[in-house]
Amino acid sequence: xxxxTTRKIDEMEGxxxxxxxxxxxxxxxxxxxxxxxxxxxxxxxxxxxxxHEHDGQEEVYVVLRGSGQIVVDGEEIPLDSDTVTRVGAxxxxxxxxxxxxxxxxxxxxxxxxxxxxPEVFALSxxxxx
Length: 129
Fold this sequence. Notes:
7-stranded antiparallel sheet; single chain; 40% strand
């Protein structure tokens, strides 16, 4: 029997006001983290400047639509459909969208560790709704 899951992005459960789509949980991915971030044009003030020293997770950013930038330890790096960016756990990063908005696929995992989905990115139960 085939083992697969498929979902429409716009129908995926959201977090943080719909800003993050819980793609990994929706697709039942268990070996790495996976979220889709939808940002309207010129947004970025709500995306935290952060690193992952606390959990050791490195992340890869892939643009699905639109454009923007990621500031990595103070360096501005363009985000577009021709560029893929990896950021190590201890490095600070902050994402903002360009004039057309940004749909960003974010993949994450902790090298050498088993992936554990943070509760905030787990699917809600009927009791949570």
